[in-house]
Amino acid sequence: MMKVEWEFSEELEDRRTNLVVKGHDSYCLQTMGGKEIELAREINILYKDKEVLALPFLRITHKSKNGIKSTFQKVMLPGYVFLYLPKDSKPFEIRPGGVSFHFVSNVEKNDYVLHGSDEKYAQWIFNSGGIIGMSKAIKVNGKVRVISGPLYNMVGNIKEYSKKNRNCRIEITLFGRLISMWLPFQWVEEVPEEKKIEDNQTENK
């Protein structure tokens, strides 16, 4: 079976423009891994009249097989879809269809609207239409700091690595929860010792 890929159509572009003009709130939905694109498409079809926009979080990456290079879409946050509704909408009017999901609650605000860095993160994905390029990172002792892309300036702890696949798994905090994400070795660089000290002092302020 051919893998279904995400397309940010002109219709979705118009919907995004309307949300920008009228103002919107951002939410996060959790679903089964591998169902992100299917869920986003389903919500966009079922709730077309409500000016709802649902987006997966994907990046375009490269692969090489038998000497032939090609690109494909990789899910960056498996099991999560971002939802954008007009201001003051009732989020729980959005109900599961064929793909089940639930709203991710904001543990600090005791609600479901994204705030602060979570909202900025969702806004970056909103602006990109759900598809982004790859972030780059630098290594700070046992940590990595993202220096471009939607995860800009976020810090995560390295939890494990794979020499075979040449990547490492880091944990970052989103929605008040720890989320795991894999980064290739080539996106991680050692930094001078004085930079490590400076970063640690900044984080402790």
Q: How far is it from the N-terminal to the C-terminal residue, by CA? A: 52 Å
Radius of gyration: 18 Å
Q: Summarize the biggest pleated sheet.
A: 5 strands, antiparallel
Strand numbers in spatial order across the main sheet: 8-9-10-11-12
Gross morphology:
globular
Total beta-strand segments: 12
Range of helix content: 10-25%
Would you summarize the structure shown here?
Helices cover 23% and strands 34% of the residues. By secondary structure, the chain is of the alpha+beta class.
SSE diagram, text form:
Blueprint (H helix, E strand, L loop, with lengths): L9 H13 L1 E7 L5 H11 L6 E3 L2 E8 L2 E8 L4 E7 L15 E2 L12 H13 L2 E2 L4 E4 L2 E4 L8 E8 L4 E8 L2 E8 L8 H11 L2
Parallel strand pairs: 3-7
Antiparallel strand pairs: 1-5, 1-6, 2-5, 3-4, 8-9, 9-10, 10-11, 11-12
Structure description:
This protein has 205 residues and is of the alpha+beta class. The protein is built from four helices and twelve strands. The chain has helices at residues 10-22, 36-46, 116-128, 193-203; strands at residues 24-30, 53-55, 58-65, 68-75, 80-86, 102-103, 131-132, 137-140, 143-146, 155-162, 167-174, 177-184. The strands form three sheets. The protein has a five-stranded antiparallel beta sheet, covered by helices on one side. Strands 2-5-1-6 form a four-stranded antiparallel beta sheet. A hairpin with an 8-residue loop joins strand 9 (143-146) and strand 10 (155-162). The longest helix is centred in the first third of the chain and has 13 residues, at 10-22. It starts with 9 loop residues before the first helix and ends with a helix.
